[in-house]
Specification:
The protein is mostly beta strands and 84 residues long. It is built from no helices and eight strands. The relative contact order is 0.35.
């Protein structure tokens, strides 16, 4: 079986306001992972549409990010979930 690893990138320019998980934590689909204070002063919540374990965190609170910045790597658990 192949492992699926997702790279989570910043969607904007800004500063990491909060990292809401630790390496090896299990996260659920659409769970908030990061809060980024954008260069315009708004707060951007970062979440992804898959669940699994955090393989690595690439940023820390207070760090400057751009859309090219890798925030974390997540190993997908490949479980299909959802609700009505």
């Amino acid at each position: 079986m192949n492992d699926t690893v997702h790279i989570i990138n910043s969607p904007c320019f800004g500063t990491i306001e909060q990292v809401m998980m630790k390496q090896l934590d299990y996260v659920y689909e659409w769970e908030k992972l990061f809060l980024i204070r954008t260069s315009r002063g708004t707060l951007e919540e970062i979440a992804v549409g898959y669940s699994g374990s955090i393989l690595s965190l690439e940023v820390e609170q207070g760090e400057q990010v751009t859309p090219a910045t890798v925030l974390a790597k997540l190993k997908d658990d490949l479980l299909i979930t959802g609700s009505d």
